[in-house]
């Protein structure tokens, strides 16, 4: 990637020799991984809904699986975006929905019971990861609880605001192309 | 040398890169003594401006000392000169430059082919910005190659600190041009959306230019306190109605002059449902920018008033009430700043003590801490308003 990007530079442009640490904190990297995971899972749910319901012994729920696929894709995009916190919490909400539906697969007689149990364990594991990542991302990006600074003395005017009012008006004429006032 | 390099969305790294080299007789190389992070850099950080490429060096607010010169500078610049580098690269001789429209110089964009296709007609080259503006390596680095250096520089005297001079590169002239474009009269109310560094400079400029009242709008207490210090009446848009307060302050008539110092990333909140719509559309690539502030300005502006837009927009926006603007007869003025059109005058005002732009600096750090500071500045942590980097 690095060497590829060097190709488009002109002769005298600086080119990357060695990369340093990134501005992306660990939680954001994890959010990205989860985002891509969401999208991949969502696409699978969309195109292979029938295989999924078969594997889980829950025929007739293909529509539901596809709608969950759309949900996963939306969460995925949100987790990849700047609003990753919203994306991650939407994943958590989705995980809970998944778990609720999977529990139905344990009711009554289901020859695929063990597959459902495995799925539940996996989703539960992912739920934990989602919650931890969402919390970490929230903490990394939060404004601190400390009182915001008071910059009330940073006037920018060495002789104070009162002296500054209109001080440039006499010595400045608006250029012709930027005038707006009609003659009074 | 070391430089802050864009690797993708929210991914900036302090990399080791090769030193820049003179390519053209009109080039010069500057050893950077101070540079800053700008709100525009955040749009790049968020990958909202098209045509960034991994490996692009960030930064367009830099100053330093000339250490190498091309053979074609005609004595306009020599080794050892202390210069501030304007973020708009300009040739100084094309038709637009002769008019002082430096940010739309016809010659300085080396990706004119690309820009002509996207914008209809190319605009000037900019440092540390998209390849639509030439993809020139930026100034958040130890060294910076300045193209068209015989024109593209602001010579500054010794004996004044970097901190007082650095912002001649961008935000001071940007705030100034935003106010000048309003052609401020002593009877005017000037409303300014956004109290980031650009908004702060616009407030000071409007005060200096003699506005009757300056009203500043934001939601961050530390930024509002700095706005107030500069002489503005403040509105916290999270707790007050912007429209009601502005009408109240203008006897129900609305401000004559409105300045958008926010740009494409207007705050998203439940209180402003259109911003949620915009965020969703932006994510689905149905819209590039979130124009909440433009909508609000057009609505509240006094008929026959002026809308001045220094805030950066990148492409298409949705639901812009152009009918309202047309019927109210509003004047729109906008653009990347024609930096050098103002800097001689502004340098004099700094020297005379009319203004000291260093008031806006809240953080000064080493270049290596740059990637972390992008995040702090973006997340508005630690009451951060302006970050200066020392390479
Ligand atoms: N025209 C130019 O040449 C030029 C030069 C420099 C910067 N800019 C642009 O100016 C804009 C501001 O730059 P900055 O460095 O001050 O950035 P910044 O991000 O620090 O400041 C933006 C401020 O706007 C506030 N804001 C967000 N939504 C708002 C709303 N709905 N109403 C009121 N305030 C709101 C934010 O809280 C923030 O304080 C950016 O778009 C930047 O790209 C333009
Ligand atoms: Zn800038
Ligand atoms: Zn030119």
Provide structural commentary.
The complex is a heterodimer of chains A (184) and B (391). By secondary structure, chain A is an all-alpha fold. Chain A has a domain at 26-139. Chain A has seven helices and one strand; from the N terminus they run H-E-H-H-H-H-H-H. Chain A has helices spanning 2-7, 26-47, 49-56, 62-80, 84-104, 113-141, 161-164, and one strand at 16-18. The longest helix of chain A is centred in the C-terminal third of the chain and has 29 residues, at 113-141. Chain A is elongated and about 90 Å long. Chain B is α/β, with parallel strands linked by helices and 391 residues long. Chain B has two domains: 2-170 and 337-390, Quinone Oxidoreductase, Chain A, domain 1 (Alpha-Beta Complex), CATH 3.90.180.10; 172-334, 3-Layer(aba) Sandwich (Rossmann fold). In chain B, strand 17, helix 13 (370-378) and strand 18 (387-390) form a beta-alpha-beta unit. In chain B, helix 5 (171-180) crosses helix 6. The longest helix of chain B is centred in the middle third of the chain and has 12 residues, at 197-208. Chain B is globular and about 60 Å long. At the A-B interface, helix 1 and strand 1 of A face strand 1, strand 2, strand 4, helix 6 and helix 7 of B. Strand 1 of chain A pairs antiparallel with strand 2 of chain B. The structure holds nicotinamide-adenine-dinucleotide and zinc ion (2 copies). One zinc ion is lined by residues 38, 40, 60-61, 87, 170 of chain B.
List the secondary-structure elements of chain A in sequence, H or E.
HEHHHHHH
CATH fold annotation of the largest domain in chain B: Quinone Oxidoreductase, Chain A, domain 1
Average predicted confidence as pLDDT of chain B: 97
Q: Which regions of chain B have little confidence, pLDDT < 50, spanning 5+ residues?
A: none
Mean pLDDT of chain A: 93
Task: Give the percentage of residues in beta strands of chain A.
Answer: under 5%
**Multimeric organization:** heterodimer
For the report, how would you describe the main beta sheet of chain B?
7 strands, mixed
Roughly what percent helix of chain A?
55-70%
Number of helices of chain B: 13
Please report the distance between the alpha carbons of the first and last residues of chain B.
Answer: 10 Å
Question: CATH superfamily of the largest domain in chain B, called what?
Answer: Medium-chain alcohol dehydrogenases, catalytic domain
* Radius of gyration of CA atoms of chain A, rounded to a whole number: 28 Å
Report strand % of chain B.
Answer: 15-25%
Q: Helix- and strand-based class of chain A?
A: mainly alpha
The termini of chain A sit apart by 62 Å
Largest sheet of chain A: none
Structural class of chain B: alpha/beta
Strand tally of chain A is 1
């Amino acid at each position: 990637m690095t060497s590829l990007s060097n190709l488009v530079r002109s002769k005298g442009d600086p080119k990357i020799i060695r990369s340093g640490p990134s501005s992306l904190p660990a939680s954001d990297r994890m959010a990205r991984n989860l985002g891509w995971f969401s999208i991949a899972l969502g696409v699978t749910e969309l195109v292979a809904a029938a295989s999924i319901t078969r594997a889980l012994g829950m025929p007739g729920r293909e529509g539901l699986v596809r709608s969950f696929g759309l949900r996963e894709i939306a969460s995925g995009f949100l987790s990849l975006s700047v609003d990753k916190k919203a994306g991650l919490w939407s994943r958590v909400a989705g995980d809970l929905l998944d778990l609720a539906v999977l529990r139905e697969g344990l009711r009554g007689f289901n020859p695929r019971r063990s597959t459902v149990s495995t799925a539940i364990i996996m989703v539960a594991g992912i739920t934990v990861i989602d919650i931890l990542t969402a919390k970490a991302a929230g903490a990394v990006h939060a404004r601190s609880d400390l009182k915001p600074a008071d910059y009330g003395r940073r006037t920018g005017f060495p002789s104070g605001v009162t002296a500054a009012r209109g001080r440039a008006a006499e010595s400045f004429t608006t250029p012709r192309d930027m005038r707006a006032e009609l003659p009074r | 040398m070391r430089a802050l390099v864009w690797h993708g969305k929210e991914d900036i790294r302090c990399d080791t890169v090769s030193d820049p080299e003179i390519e053209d007789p009109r080039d010069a190389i500057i050893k950077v003594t101070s540079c800053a992070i700008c709100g525009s850099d955040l749009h790049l950080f968020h990958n909202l401006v098209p045509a960034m490429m991994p490996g692009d060096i960030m930064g367009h607010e830099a100053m330093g000392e000339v250490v190498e010169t091309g053979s074609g500078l005609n004595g306009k610049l020599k080794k050892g000169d202390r210069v501030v580098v304007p973020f708009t690269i300009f040739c100084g001789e094309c038709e637009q430059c002769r008019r002082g429209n430096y940010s739309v110089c016809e010659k300085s964009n080396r990706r004119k082919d690309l820009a002509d296709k996207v914008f209809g007609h190319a605009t000037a080259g900019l440092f540390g910005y998209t390849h639509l503006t030439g993809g020139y390596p930026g100034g958040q680095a130890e060294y910076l190659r300045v193209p068209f250096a015989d024109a593209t520089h602001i010579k500054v005297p010794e004996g004044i600190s970097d901190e007082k001079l650095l912002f001649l590169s961008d935000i001071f002239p940007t705030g100034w041009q935003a106010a000048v474009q309003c052609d401020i009269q002593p009877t005017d109310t000037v409303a300014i959306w956004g109290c980031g560094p650009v908004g702060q400079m616009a407030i000071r400029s409007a005060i200096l230019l003699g506005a009757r009242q300056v009203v500043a709008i934001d939601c961050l207490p530390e930024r509002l306190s700095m706005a107030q210090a500069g002489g503005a009446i403040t509105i916290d848009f999270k707790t007050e109605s912007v429209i009601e307060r502005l009408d109240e302050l203008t006897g129900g008539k609305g401000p004559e002059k409105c300045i958008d110092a926010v740009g494409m990333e207007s705050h998203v909140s439940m209180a402003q449902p259109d911003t949620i719509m915009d965020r969703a559309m932006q994510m689905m690539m149905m819209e590039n920018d979130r124009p909440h502030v433009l909508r609000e300005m057009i609505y509240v502006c006094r008929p026959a008033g002026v809308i001045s837009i220094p805030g950066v927009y990148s492409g298409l926006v949705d639901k812009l009430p152009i009918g309202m603007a047309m019927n109210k007869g509003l004047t729109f003025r906008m653009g990347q700043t024609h930096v050098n059109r103002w800097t001689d005058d502004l340098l004099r005002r700094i020297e005379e003590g009319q203004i000291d732009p260093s008031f806006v600096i809240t953080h000064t750090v080493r270049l290596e801490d740059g990637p972390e500071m992008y995040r702090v500045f973006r997340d508005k942590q630690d009451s951060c308003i302006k970050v200066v980097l020392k390479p």
